[in-house]
Amino acid sequence: MNTPNTATATDGSYVDWAAIFAGTVVAVAIGLLLTTFGAALGLSSITLDGTDDSSTFELILTALWLVLTLIASYLAGGYIAGRMRRRVKSATKDEVTTRDGINGLTVWGLGTIITAVLLSNAVSFAANTAGSVAAGAGQAAGAVVQTAGSAVGGVASGVANAAGAAIPDEAKADPTEYLSNQLLRPAQVDPNAADPAQVAQQAASIVANVYRTGEVSDADRTYLASAVAARTNMTQQEAQARVDQVVTDAQTARQQAADAVQAAKDEAQQLADEAKATAVEAARTARNAGILTAFVLAAAALIAGVAAFAGAVHGGRDRDAGRTFRGLHYHG
Question: Is the confidence at residue 141, as pLDDT, over 80?
Answer without folding.
Answer: no
